Structures are given as C-alpha cells and as structure tokens.
Amino acid sequence: MTAQLPALQIAIPLLGAFITPLIGWHRPRLAGLWALAVLAGAAALAVALLMQVTAHGPISYHLGNWAPPWGIAYAVDHLTVLMLLLITGIGLMAFLQARPAVAVSMPGREPYFYTLFLLQVTGLSGIVITGDMFNLFVFLEISSLSGYALIALGEDGAPLATFNYIIIGTVGACFYLLGVGYLYIVTGSLNMADLANLLPALYHSKVVLVAFAFFTVGVAIKMGLFPLHTWMPDAYTTAPAPASALIAPLMTKVAAYVMIRIMFTVFRPEFDIGVIPVATILGWMAVIAILVGGIKALAQTDLKRMLTYIMVAEVGYIVMGISVMNRPGLTGAILHIMNDACMVACLFLVIGALAHKGIPRTISELGSLNRKMPFTMAAFVVAALSMCGLPPACGFFSKWYLVQGTVAAGQWVFAGTLLVSSLINAVLFFRVIEKAYLAPGGGHGHDDQQHDDGHGTANVVRDEAPAAMLAPILIMAALILVLGPFSGTIIDAVISHAVPAAF
Amino acid sequence: MLEYVIAKYNYWVYVILMMIGLYAMMGKRNLVKKLIGMNIFQTSIILFYVSIGVKKGGATVPILEGHGHGGHQAVDVATILNPLPHVLMLTAIVVSIATTGVALAALILIYRRYGTLEEDEIIAARRAAAAPKAKDQAS
Questions:
Q1: Euclidean distance between the first and final Cα of chain B, in Å?
Q2: Structural domain contains residue B62
Q3: Range of the structural domain that residue B31 is part of
C-alpha cells in the first residue's frame, strides 16, 4: 500500500473529481462533503509521502511497472513533497472557505465548481510529482483548463479576462511543448532523470539551446514573470473569490517549481551559467518585475487588483533567488515559494471573506473594518506584516536568505531592489491597514445596513464572517507565524536536499 | 540556400504556420479570429512532432506480425517508424480540442454580455459601463 502512494496522490483527486457531479445530481449537499473528504485524503497522502521521503529518501514510482525511460515515472523527492503539501494544504483551506461562499454565489451549480476545484488540485499535484517531460505538459494543461473555467465563473469582465488568459496561456504551454520536442529530437528521451544524464554531452548543440529558450519563455508566461504577466491582474481580479484563493497562491508557485526543475534537474547549473547567460537575464528581469509590480500596485484602488500586482513582484523575488545561482539564493527562492503561497493564500482568503459579506474591495471604502470584522482584519495584518518582511512572520526569513544570496553573488543592485521592494510593500499594506483601523466611517452603502452611516465609528456593528470561512483564514495566519521560527528546521529537513550539490 | 530550405522543409512549414497563428492572435481584433490563430499555432506544433517521426527509405508503421504474444524475433530499426511522437500528439490534439472548447464557451459568455465579439467594441462598452459608476463614487 505505501508503495503506491505516489499514484494515489494523483488518482484520488482525479477520480474524486469525476465522481463529484455524479453525487451532486442526487444529493447536492453530499457533493461538498465528498469533495472535502477527497481533499483531506490528498492532504493526508502528502503528509505520508513527506514522512516516507524524509525517512527513506526520494522515491521513483514506475507507472504500470514500466521502467523509465520507456515508461512514465513519478519522481518524489524533497522538493516535490514540499510542493505537494502546499498544494493539498492550501487546496483544503481554500475549499473550507469555498463551500459556504459557493452555496451563496452560485446556488445549484456547486457540484460543478467542486469538480473543477478538484481537477485544479489534480493538475497542480501532477505537475510537481511527475518525472516525465510530456506528462508534465498534460498536467499543466489539466490545471490550466480547470483554471480557465474557474476564473470564467467570476464577476463582470471575467469571460474576457479568461479568454485573454486562454490565448496567452496556450502560447506558453505550446512553447513548453516545443521545447520538449526539441529535446526529444536530440536525445530520444522524455524522462527527466534520463535527460539529465544524456544532455551534458549536447550542451553546445543549438537544438538544446533553442529547447531551453522555449522552456524558459513558456514557463515564464505561466508564472507571470514581467513582461509576460499581463494576463494575471485581470484574470485573478475578476475570478470568483473562492477560486482565486486556490489559483492565485498556487499556479505561479508551481510554475516557479517547474522552472527550478528544468534549470537544476533536467539541466545542470553549469549550463545555466556557462553555456547560456540565462541566469543574468532572469536576474535583471526579476529586478524589473519587482519594481514594476510594486509601482503598479501603488497605483491601484482595488484591494484585490493591488494584490495581483504584488504577486507580480513576488514572482520576481523567486526568480531572483533562482538567478543568483548559489545556495542561500536558491534556498531563499524555495522557502519563498512556500512562504509566499501561504501569505497570498491568507490574503486572498481574507478577500473571500470580505466578498462574502458584500464589502466593496475599494481601499478607500474599508473604513472601520477592524470593528466590523476584527479577526479577519487581524489575519490580514499578520499576512501584510509578513509581506513587508517583519520577523517573526515567515516572509522575513525567506527575504533574509534571498538578500544573503544576492550579496554572496555580489549583485548589490539585486539586494537593493529587495530592500526597496520591502519598503514599497510596507507603504502598500499600511495604506490598507490605516484605512481599516484608523479611518472613520463604515458606511459601505450595501443593502443590509441597519444603522445610519456617517456618525463616526461608534455605531459600527460587529459583522464577522461565518466561522467556516474564518477558520481557514486564522489557520493560514497562524501558519505564517509558525513557519517563520521553524524555517531552520524546514531548510535542514527538506530544502537543503533540493539544492543541487554543486552549490 | 534553397537546398538548405528544401532539406529542412518540414521545419519551415511549421515555423510559417506558427507565425501565421501568432499574427492572428496578436494582430486581429476579432476574438474568434484570435481563437482560430491559436488553433493554427497548436496545429503547427502537432505537424512539427509528426514530421520528426519520419524516416527516409520506406520505413513503415510498427505493426509486428507474430503469433499470439509474438514479436520475439529481432526487428530491423531502419524499417520501423518511431511511433512515439504520433502518440504524444494524440494527447496534444485532445488537449487542443479541450482548450478550444473552453475558449468557445468563454466567447459565448462574452457575446451574451456585450452582444459583440469585436475587441474594440467590447472595450468601448466596458468603458461606457465604468464611467457612470466612477461618477457615482465621486459624488
């Protein structure tokens, strides 16, 4: 049984997704519980895999008992289990909040939403677990397609944003597929471990260089790296709140994982530095991404849209950590994948709670929110402080490693950019916190207002989100605080194994 | 130069098709035309994969004639095509059809909301819808 864990990790959410509408036709209420059970099962499997990998080392699972490179292998190593835990854990939290939200916002269609939700989790888990280049493409498209459908369910403007996302997302996936094709021409292999052995002899082949270029651009589109981020703000802003809490933290991070896999598992670090100056190019793109993301975020009046531009900057952080090509840098990048996923998930869950209460997302209208929704706003403050990089929240620790990495590489501009970006984040979030905690008012003009507004803050009634929606927010906020002090443990137990030995 | 083009004509065909698709996606203002451009783009990659499975000299499909679980006899590799690129493309075709389906569904939603599929008209309609709202907030 334990030997089959990697296959079950994919099979359970995949089959669970297809059973969900069948249950939903007969008992719509039961479908939600079923999907919750499936996600909990997937999270439990991820924990079991983590125990197995930390105890016995990486697992290579041969699907159908066909040995690689002929068959498809699932390669489960330390980085994989970390990503699996993130995906299933955040998936579970987002789903806890999605159930009450979806019951209100799309009644009668919940089972279909749950199906797409589970397919999204399947696709993301598949991307991180597979050891086969083409299999990765298939899972990439599973997650993208379910993501398109989830985003299209959103508010006014969502279909157009979805269509633009489909067009540019497909170009990204096609570029990835072309890269796979070129590598297949010269090596005749699709297995990542096999490719890693075959490729060093071919590093100066033009075909390999072209393949690598296609991979980089394709994955950069999927992760929303500046200037290929243009689909992201529209798509994530208009997406329905429960869907964006799942997609926004995970899709970009999983694409960053793919970039790490390609640059450090399929190709060797020597290639990324010596043969093609991709590290330098990515580093400067990251600088621009961080600065432009931050400045564009400053210009936003819509809270959710501001967060999507912050995500553009956060993707820049991760890419910068990858690009400096040393141990603290890559450690910081992987740590930041984890921390940023938790922070963004927490912030988007807060947005979900606000949306559920019908509170407008315009920052200037958030006055007195601390009295109205004290727990939600407390969690928001924790995530916001973590984004600014204040200890003991986890955001500080990954930034610490990132800055160390840039200094070790002698890239002072990069280090400076990281610090400036922290300042921009502080301005961004304190603007929101100031409005919510200090500004008077609380007149939001929505229908269920029982009191006169405009009489100061004295008569603001506490109107907290329901417990089912609040619980995941508080769990994520607690996690942000807990992950910080335990960063050292996580790095020793998991991340240090994911950094290539050459560093 | 001409020999160079002819010797690798399958790559030229795929690149030209791909550029046509890319042009349609970027240059056309009608959303259906963009979608068609995306399809041409995907198809060019399918053609690329299929063409790299070809072998010169009369190689054919790998159907081995044997008895029952046969195929134990040695196979001359030069007479057999590599079937893997074709098999991969079966999956890619499925993916491309699914993408087209989702995109068409999104187009139906857009058409229902705005009554047009011209990008310029949609943007104008969205601006017109946003303007009174902004005025509301200002007052």
A1: 69
A2: no
A3: 2-55+84-138
Residues in chain A: 503
Which tokens belong to A58?
A: 């990486």
User: Which of B102, B122, B126 comes nearest A149 by C-beta?
Assistant: B102
- What local confidence, expressed as pLDDT, does residue B137 receive? 55
Condensed to tens digits (0 to 9), the pLDDT of residues A461-480 reads 777 778 888 889 999 999 99
Residues of A in contact with B85 (CB under 8 A): 181, 184
Number of domains chain B contains: 1
pLDDT, tens digit (0-9, with 9 covering 90-100), for B83-125: 888 889 999 999 999 999 999 999 999 998 888 888 888 888 8
Per the rule left: phi > 0, alpha: psi between -120 and 50, beta: everything else, A63 is beta
Q: Minimal CA–CA distance to A472: which of A6, A8, A95, A47?
A: A95
Distance from C-alpha of A409 to C-alpha of A401, rounded to nearest angstrom? 12
CB atoms within 10 A of CB B57: 6
Comparing alpha-carbon positions, the chain B residue that sits nearest to A184 is B85
* B16 within domain boundaries: yes
CB pairs under 8 A between A and B: 76
Measured CA to CA, the distance from residue A347 to residue A341 in angstroms comes to 10
CB A149 within 8 A of CB B101: no
Structure confidence at residue A441 (pLDDT): 60
Contact A133, A69 (CB under 8 A): no
The verdict on residue B78 lying in a domain is no
Nearest-CA distance B15 → chain A (Å): 11
> Looking up tokens 């330098």, which residue turns up?
A280
**Which amino acid, one-letter code, is at A412?**
W
In this structure, of A8-22, A282-296, A351-365, the range with the lowest mean pLDDT score is A351-365
pLDDT value of position A362: 82
Domain-embedded: residue B134: yes
Instruction: Report the alpha-carbon distance of residue A126 to residue A34 in Å, rounded.
Output: 21
Angle between helix A241-261 and helix A327-356 axes, rounded to 10 deg = 170
The CATH number of the domain holding residue B125 is: 1.10.287.3510
| Residues facing residue A62 across a β-bridge | A73
pLDDT digits (tens, 9 = 90+) for A213-265: 999 999 999 998 888 888 888 889 888 888 899 999 999 999 999 999 998 88
